[in-house]
Structures are given as C-alpha cells and as structure tokens.
C-alpha cells in the first residue's frame, strides 16, 4: 500500500509540476508579447511645433504631448519658470563646436550635445571635452536612421552600440535620446524607454543646419531671441556658423531678460 501511495503521490507531484511549467511558460510568452514594441502603434509622427508671438509657449500638439507624457519624455518645461534648456544636435563636426564650448565655458552654461556614431568616431576629443566640462552627451543614434522605419532589434542596435562606444571611449553613460529628424512612434518610445532612455524633443528650432544657407549672425540672433519662452528646450545645430557666432550674444541677452540656462538633469515639468 505504501508503494502504491508513493507512486500516486509521485504522479500527482509530476502533474502539478507540468501544469506549473505550462502556466509559467504561457505567462512568460504573454509578458514578452505584451512588452514588445512590435505590438504597439508604429505610425510615424514628425515632431512639429506651432510658434507663438510675444514669447508665448508654442503649441506642440495634442498627440505629441500625450505620447511624451505617457512615456515620460521631455518636451516642454515648467510654465512658471524662465528656464531654458540648451541642446545641440551634432551629426558631424564642421569646425564650430570648439568655439561653442569656449562660449559656454565663458558664460558658465551647461548644454546637451546629441551626437551620432560618425561624430564620436571623427571628433572623439571634442566629446571628451564635453564630458570633462560638465555637459551632457546625448544619443542621436549610430547612423541617424528614422526609428519608426526600422525593426525593434535595429533600434536597439542604433541606440546601444553608440551607448557602449561612448562608454568605452569616455567612461560616460548616456541616458537622453533625441530621435533622428524628430520622427518617432509609440513603438519607438516604448523600446527606447525600456533601454533606459528618456526621449528629448524641443520647443524651438529653425533652419540652421544647412551650411550652404547661413543667413548671418544677426538673423540667427533675432530668430533665437524673438522666440525665447518659459520652459524652452532650445535646439541648435552645431554645424551652423551663424549659431557659433551668435551664441555669446544670445546667452548674454537671454540672461539680461531674466532667463536662466539649466541642464536637462535639472529639468522641471
């Protein structure tokens, strides 16, 4: 009787274990499907803002705002504070970043530089200077690909290969991402958030990136200063001669108007 009881007990235990394994496997698969970016909306959205006059904050659009809030992105600072968050996109080095860094140092302003893989590979010393002088280095992906147009795995490679390369060369660990061209989807926000990144958009930018269509330092100053606003995330391109030439005056005039330049690490919603 004891042996029969033992066999029955053994069979029962085996059955329980099998059921547990089946349930656990199903749950794990469900979790993988649930958290996969591929199950989320991949409609490509281009970040666009509607400028306002008289230093009023721009309208970023309902869809933009809702998705940024849902995935804890940075796109517009606190309305009550005259804070400006200065950011630069650096796809490649055109010879102006050293001057930009000099101006920032002279004015005691910290900025965020969103770099690509090409920038790191061709201007490593400038990236190291950014880090050593207390600036934030942000991720602008390896090859500047439009994220909604590539697979989940390609997104991870575009972000994390640059992440690892920057860490290996500088000891710096990035945490902010600016999606190339400002194009994103709910899927890309979810994937990059799972990678530990905060997506950062902007509330001011202008056509400054075409080196063959620079309109002069006075034009740049007027464009930038006319659009200052509370909680501004200012986007400038580091390959613009106009920006490099105008930056000192822009910083000094913005401060004279009561604005403070803050780091993204100090961002207030």
Topology overview:
Elements: H1 2-35, E1 45-46, H2 62-70, E2 83-90, H3 97-106, E3 112-115, H4 117-122, H5 124-132, E4 136-139, H6 152-170, E5 176-177, E6 183-184, H7 186-194, E7 198-199, H8 217-226, E8 232-237, H9 241-256, E9 260-262
Parallel strand pairs: 2-3, 2-8, 2-9, 3-4, 5-7
Antiparallel strand pairs: 1-6
Walk me through this protein's architecture.
The chain has 269 residues and is an alpha/beta fold. It folds into two domains: 2-35; 64-266, Glycoside hydrolase/deacetylase (TIM Barrel, Alpha-Beta Barrel), CATH 3.20.20. It contains nine helices and nine strands. It has helices at 2-35, 62-70, 97-106, 117-122, 124-132, 152-170, 186-194, 217-226, 241-256; strands at residues 45-46, 83-90, 112-115, 136-139, 176-177, 183-184, 198-199, 232-237, 260-262. The strands form three sheets. Strands 2, 3, 4, 8 and 9 form a five-stranded parallel β-sheet that branches. It has a two-stranded antiparallel sheet with strand order 1-6. It has a two-stranded parallel ribbon with strand order 5-7. Helix 3 (97-106) links the parallel strand 2 (83-90) and strand 3 (112-115). Helix 3 packs parallel to helix 9 (241-256). The longest helix is centred in the N-terminal third of the chain and has 34 residues, at 2-35.
Summarize the structure.
With 269 residues, this protein is of the alpha/beta class. It contains nine helices and nine strands.
């Amino acid at each position: 009787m004891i042996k029969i009881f033992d066999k029955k007990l053994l069979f029962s235990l085996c059955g329980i274990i099998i059921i547990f394994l089946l349930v656990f496997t199903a749950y794990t698969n469900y979790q993988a499907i649930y958290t996969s970016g591929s199950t989320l909306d991949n409609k490509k959205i281009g970040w666009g803002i509607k400028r306002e006059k008289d230093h009023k904050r721009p309208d970023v659009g309902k869809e933009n705002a809702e998705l940024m809030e849902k995935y804890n992105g940075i796109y517009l600072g606190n309305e009550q504070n005259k804070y400006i968050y200065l950011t630069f996109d650096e796809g490649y080095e055109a010879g102006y970043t050293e001057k930009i860094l000099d101006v920032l140092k002279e004015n005691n302003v910290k900025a965020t530089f969103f770099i690509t893989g090409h920038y790191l590979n061709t201007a490593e010393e400038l990236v190291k200077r950014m880090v050593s002088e207390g600036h934030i280095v942000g991720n602008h992906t390896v090859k500047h690909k439009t994220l909604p147009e590539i697979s989940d795995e390609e997104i991870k490679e575009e972000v994390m290969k640059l992440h690892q390369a920057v860490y290996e060369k500088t000891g710096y660990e990035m945490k902010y991402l600016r999606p190339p061209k400002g194009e994103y989807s709910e899927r890309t926000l979810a994937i990059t958030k799972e990678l530990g990144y905060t997506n950062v958009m902007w509330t001011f930018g202008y056509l400054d990136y075409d080196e063959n269509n620079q309109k002069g330092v006075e034009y740049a100053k007027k464009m930038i200063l006319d659009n200052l606003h509370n909680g501004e995330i200012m986007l400038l391109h580091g390959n613009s001669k106009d920006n490099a030439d105008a930056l000192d005056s822009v910083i000094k005039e913005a401060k004279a108007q009561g604005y403070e330049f803050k780091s993204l690490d100090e961002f207030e919603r």
